[in-house]
Write a structure and sequence with these properties.
Structural class: mainly alpha
Number of helices: 2
Order of helices and strands: HH
Number of domains: 1
Largest sheet: none
Mean pLDDT: 85
Shape: elongated
Length: 40
């Protein structure tokens, strides 16, 4: 687990420094996948 934290340390610290997350991007991706399934 320590190796994983060290590997992602920069991104983890960026989140707490800027309070950014990828929730918006994930939401857009989900809607695009839904539209593809529906045949839009």
């Amino acid at each position: 687990m320590e190796r994983t934290i060290r590997r992602w340390q920069e991104y983890i610290l960026n989140y707490f420094g800027h309070y950014t997350a990828n929730a918006y991007t994930e939401g857009v991706h989900t809607k695009m996948e839904l539209m593809k399934r529906r045949g839009w």
